[in-house]
């Protein structure tokens, strides 16, 4: 599966030592050794390559860092830190990186997962706590469990709930990330065969400016890549706005709408996200 991931149209590959591995100590050790072998043999190309370590405060988190970093910091781009609730947990990982990186020039980034109420309540402090931070990631499974939500599908909606169950946490995380120049990522949708549900989740996340979404199966990639990007209609509309405004600035009429410099910024943001020329 890891070898296949290195050939797929994903922007980032995350090798997981946490929830994807049995909590048994021996299983963790085997997974760690296997992962290090893969880092030596698999070419991930230009994709961002990350490892999700175990939760800070467990012996396996320290083992993950002490065994991986001196040998593979030059191969990795980021460390994903799960279940972060406190600034001190990010500080622990940061201090380990400073001490263990064999190549100081590698300067590994950090992506932290927001997976419980305390983390969401402390999001401003967490988003500001390290110069290595690159992304905030919603972890919907553990978040649902911590909140006592009646959820069995990771990232799914609640029957009878009159809205988007994930709007508030995603919006709050997005605001904290944008205020500090970080990326903001939605977590996975575990119902692999539910393409309709996945598509709806992507559309909702993209609507509030989320940069991307984790996938847990190759079949989800096409939907996520398509729906997390602006649609062709949105791109065409953005181009019309810029054409109408031209270089003169000010306010002008476009059909039944007034467009101005705020419209220009919105249109430029849409085109930047799409990668379309303008």
Determine Rg (CA atoms, Å): 20 Å
Secondary-structure arrangement, i.e. CATH architecture of the largest domain:
Alpha-Beta Barrel
Poorly predicted regions: none
Please indicate the percent range of residues in DSSP E strands (runs of 2 or more).
5-15%
Strand order, main sheet: write it out: 1-2-3-4-5-6-7
Q: How many domains, in number, for the residues?
A: 2
Cα end-to-end separation? 38 Å
Question: How many helical stretches?
Answer: 12
CATH topology of the largest domain: TIM Barrel
Percent helix: 40-55%
Query: Which secondary-structure class do the elements indicate?
Result: alpha/beta
CATH class of the largest domain: Alpha Beta
Helix-strand pattern? HEHEHEHEHHEHHEHEHHEEH
- Describe the sheet with the most strands: 7 strands, parallel
How many individual β-strands?
9
| CATH homologous group name of the largest domain | Phosphoenolpyruvate-binding domains
pLDDT average, as an integer?
A: 94
The backbone outline, from C-alpha atoms, is globular
